[in-house]
Design goal:
With 307 residues, the chain is of the alpha+beta class. It folds into 2 domains: 160 residues, Aminopeptidase; 120 residues, Aminopeptidase (3-Layer(aba) Sandwich). It contains 8 helices and 13 strands. It is globular and about 65 Å long. It starts with a strand and ends with a helix.
Length: 307
Amino acid sequence: MVIRKGTKEDIPQIIQLLKESLGESLLPKTEEFWKWKHLDNPFGTSPVLVAEKENQIIGVRAFLRWQFTDQNRIYSAYRAVDTAVHPKYQGQGIFSRLTQELVEDMKNEGIQLIFNTPNKKSHPGYLKLGWETWGKLPLKIKLKVPKSSNRSFHSKNWEEVSPLLSSLEDSSYTRPGVHTDLIPGYIFWRYKQCPIVKYFYLSDGETYLLIYRLKEGKKGKELRITDLFTFSGFDKKKLQTQFRELIKNSGAVWVSFSGLNYDPNVLDLGSIPLLTQGPLITLRKLQDDLDPRFLDWKWSLGDLELF
């Protein structure tokens, strides 16, 4: 078995391996999705390692390049995402070897941290490989009774908010805490160009931009606020009125928002306290001068969605 860097030419084999190993019940496995995630990412292309035997790719490990900022400092990061081992070769340590080699490559590159949101099955394996548990993302929840409506309330012409996006991606836009760095092209890539999820927004075109999606689940339809940005002159009353109309016409039975970013002075979602029911977050320290567990994290749901 040989471990080597993955190439563009490997993508068809990688997609086939993902299908054979993981199936397609959770996320689609397509070349379009892989290229959007690993080649088109404005933070840069993803490092990929593959395990190959007899000219067949039997294992793959990919990290998604990311970047955070806290107004004064840039934090270079990766998100541990795609990994698969052919069913015939599982249980032989291939996952661990691929992951450890890629971690060492990232250390040598000077990357500061790796983050991810493992499930219950994979969580113990990451802990054995040096990851540490940060905890579950706190969520702000709003429950509502759905009302049927034929009215469409979804704004999806992203060009209409291009001036706001330019302002967000301007280096002068700041927020407290550690957030995803809004570099030029990030919001369009993350939300407009995503090939597997439709995202929508609410905005007055000047002082706020709320990005959301509708997601069917076991608990019913969820209206998930993935990001919320405000600007000088922000009008809470206007946002609150627009949001009230949205949830009334959405058919959603509940609303979710990151508890790390929730501020009732910006958007009031009612009296239910924050609940620790969001995704489980783990972190991998890569450099001696930074322990990422103790940063002032302000993750949004858009940062941590499974993709």
